[in-house]
Design goal:
The complex is a heterodimer of chains A (about 350) and B (about 350). By secondary structure, chain A is mainly alpha-helical. Chain A has one domain: ABC transporter involved in vitamin B12 uptake, BtuC. In chain A, about 70% of the residues lie in helices and about 5% in strands. Chain A has 13 helices and 4 strands. In chain A, strand 2 and strand 3 form a beta hairpin. In chain A, helix 2 packs parallel to helix 7, helix 2 packs antiparallel against helix 12 and helix 11 packs parallel to helix 13. The longest helix of chain A has about 30 residues. Chain B is an all-alpha fold and about 350 residues long. Chain B has a single domain, classed as ABC transporter involved in vitamin B12 uptake, BtuC (Orthogonal Bundle). Chain B is about 75% helix and about 5% strand. Chain B has a two-stranded antiparallel ribbon. In chain B, strands 2-3 form a two-stranded antiparallel ribbon. In chain B, helix 4 packs antiparallel against helix 12. The longest helix of chain B is centred in the C-terminal third of the chain and has 28 residues. The two termini of chain B are about 25 Å apart. The chains are: A mainly alpha (about 350), B mainly alpha (about 350).
Chain lengths: ~350, ~350
């Protein structure tokens, strides 16, 4: 995430290890993009609504993308089947919410949140088990072979998507929002949808928790060290494979959470939800720099901003504008916003 | 003579040679052998897909890069010819103009994508192409006043190709415009396939294989890998555009589902892997086998679903709409256990 200056003084007393030089430049992109969009949109109320929507959407994309980028950073495995976890998580949550219909319809925030929490728990538990199995069966035999990895995980995605058709049927399913989360809060002229606030809170919580785990625990230290240099961590006697399985399972669980949030945001659910989001997720992890959590977070917000602003200004070219964003950023920094050292 | 035509890359297996000769002969005589529309459609589709799959094999099998944008180029060719014939009238000139525009657009796009993503890391390429291809598919569906949107466009082809009966031949019967169209498609496909064979067996093709095996070493030997990768990408894109144009010419229709959808991309992947990555003959075997199976497998699955109606879950698994499931399983299994494909197995045995 941060560039490191490894120069040591020649002879004499060793200089103190240089402090991390923080790189704040990419962070400025977010307000810059917002500032550029303001005169184009012209109406400040719309602009605020769109920006808040972008932040909420960005958080959801971040939840989905963070696992994928960590898995890549740690083990050089690019999982094209990540979209399957998004879809499976969303379907599991929907199935859990069906018997809880009373809780959802009740106009009590606590009961609503309890139902949602339960659904999210089931979704995350389910996707982590499936993620574990996926890692065992699909990915383990093809470590270190990028070409086969891409092919195999794409195959896995297709099979998973078709199995969803088999178990849940192919038709579009409703994914109703709990009563207390419907509608919007109005502050002055600006209406903020309640659910977007919730999504933002959840996404921020995941980001903070992830930063804490990565920066303040031994596990996080090992993961970060593994991203930088896998062999060195192994040489120090840690079993990086176990660490990797743990990260993979956590990433799958986060995809399940993200899928649930996304489906609630759209309020409908189809088996194609995974492949729909995964394109945005890929753009995000490329822009952010493969393997970088901070870059992933920033890129999620940027991509969501572009998607929302252009969705309002020129809805037909929304996805194409994100490709343009990717091209511009790669021209500026070919490795993404924050290049991970050693790769 | 044959050796020169095949650029010195002989099938190297008696069974494989036999199969290839059989496929070639059947395709060459298809309009005379099968009077029905369904069979001749299948034959034309095989011709088109041989070109498409061969061009993809140039990327995946020979250069070792995975692209998900191949359907985009295929679609470009299809839309190029289709929209030109639709808006400028059914003449040869407009078809040719459409093909030229599509070729240039395809090459430019392939060049740009390659320059951007192949420069950094090959794995970027898979993701970037996936993103670009889905953006392209959405654009094609959205700009409906130009492309016809989800419905696509039907159009008329040049006069000669839609004549009822041109000449009456002894033993053969009337030669229709349809027959001529078929031979245009067939001969173009044959020529492109031989061209692809020429490319992979040239010194240029050897460098591509060296890059596939070890790009670091290839670079160390003095080959600019970025140059070779980007060229391979452009060549494959150009061929895919051509295949799309042939497809348009035969089906007189172009739309997002038949050219741009991810399902087609998966079909191409499957054909390459099942046929055999890194051999051009794999494209022929893979495409033929897959398209023949596709036409009959779904019927078989329908019958199987009916006969297992009483059982739980099984009829859902065997439903004809679920054939993609079984293809996916087959795909994963063949990547694991069958990485050299049918051609590889035949050459071993």
């Amino acid at each position: 995430m941060v560039e490191q200056d490894g120069a040591t003084a020649a002879g004499g007393a060793p200089e103190p290890i240089p402090a991390h030089r923080a790189d704040y430049l990419p962070i400025l992109l977010v307000p810059l993009l917002a500032a550029v969009a303001l005169p184009l949109i012209a109406n400040p109320v719309t602009w605020i609504t769109l920006t808040i929507a972008a932040l909420a959407m960005g958080m959801m994309i971040f939840v989905i993308a963070s696992g994928l980028t960590l898995v890549f950073g740690l083990m050089d495995v690019l999982n094209f089947g990540h979209g399957a976890f998004i879809a499976i998580g969303a379907y599991l949550a929907m199935t859990t919410l069906i018997p809880l219909a009373d809780w959802i319809q009740a106009d009590q925030l606590a009961l609503n949140l309890a139902a949602l929490g339960l659904a999210i728990l089931v979704a995350m538990a389910g996707t982590s088990v499936i993620g574990w199995a996926f890692e065992r069966v699909i990915i383990m035999p093809v470590y270190g072979q990028h070409l086969k990895q891409i092919l195999i995980t794409t195959g896995g995605l297709i099979v998973a998507e078709q199995l969803i058709h088999v178990f849940w049927g192919g038709d579009q399913k409703p994914m109703p929002l709990p009563t207390a989360l419907r509608g919007a809060i109005t502050i002055g002229d600006v209406a903020v949808e309640k659910y977007r606030l919730l999504a933002m809170v959840v996404g921020l919580a995941v980001f903070v928790a992830m930063l804490l785990v990565l920066n303040r625990t031994k596990l996080g230290l090992l993961v970060r060290a593994g991203v930088e240099n896998r062999e060195m961590v192994e040489a120090l006697g840690y079993r990086i494979r176990r660490l990797f399985v743990a990260v993979f399972v956590a990433g799958s669980a986060l995809a399940g959470l993200g899928g649930t949030l996304w489906a609630l945001y759209r309020e409908t659910l189809t088996a194609g939800i995974g492949s729909e989001v995964i394109v945005l997720v890929f753009i995000v992890i490329i822009i952010g720099g493969l393997g970088s959590i901070g870059g992933c977070f920033l890129a999620s917000v940027l991509v969501a901003q572009v998607a929302n602003y252009t969705g309002y200004l020129a809805p037909k070219v929304a996805l194409a504008s994100n490709i343009l964003l990717m091209v511009i950023i790669l021209m500026w920094r070919p490795q993404g916003l924050y290049a991970v050292v050693g790769r | 003579m044959i050796k020169t035509l095949l650029s010195g890359d002989l099938p190297r297996s008696r069974l494989l040679s036999g199969l290839l000769v059989l496929i070639l002969a059947t395709l060459a005589a298809a309009p005379l052998l099968f009077p029905g529309a369904q069979a001749i459609n299948t034959a034309a589709k095989i011709c088109v897909f041989v070109v498409l799959v061969a061009s993809y094999d140039l990327l995946l099998g020979y250069t070792g890069i995975v692209s998900f944008a191949h359907t985009m180029f295929y679609g470009l060719g299809g839309y190029g010819v289709g929209l030109a014939l639709y808006s400028w009238g059914p003449t040869w000139a407009s078809a040719l103009a459409g093909l030229t525009i599509a070729l240039f657009a395809g090459l430019a796009l392939a060049f740009l994508i390659g320059l951007f993503s192949l420069r950094v890391r090959a794995i970027f390429f898979a993701m970037v192409t996936l993103a670009v291809a889905s953006a392209f598919a959405i654009l094609a569906a959205q700009l409906s006043s130009f492309t016809g949107g989800e419905d696509g466009r039907s159009f008329r082809i040049p006069e000669l190709l839609r004549a009822d009966a041109l000449i009456e031949l002894p033993f053969v019967g009337p030669i229709t415009g349809r027959t001529i169209t078929y031979y245009v498609v067939f001969l173009s496909a044959l020529a492109s396939f031989l061209g692809a064979l020429r490319i992979v067996n040239s010194p240029f093709g050897r460098v591509l294989q060296a890059i596939r095996e070890n790009d670091f070493r290839a670079e160390a030997l003095g080959y600019r890998t970025i140059f070779y990768r980007t060229s391979a990408n452009c060549l494959a894109a150009g061929m895919a555009v051509f295949a799309g144009a042939l497809n348009s010419l035969w089906f007189r229709y172009t739309g997002p589902d038949t050219t741009l959808s991810f399902a087609i991309m998966l079909d191409i992947l499957l054909m390459v892997v099942i046929g055999g990555m890194g051999t051009m003959y794999g494209a022929v075997i893979g495409a033929t086998l897959f398209i023949v199976a596709q036409n009959y497998l779904q019927k078989l699955m329908g019958a199987a679903a009916k006969s297992t109606e009483a059982l739980p879950l099984l009829p859902h698994l065997l439903h004809p709409d679920r054939w993609l499931l079984w293809l996916g399983v087959l795909f994963v299994l063949s990547v694991y256990f069958f990485p050299t494909g049918i051609v590889g197995k035949l050459r071993q045995g």
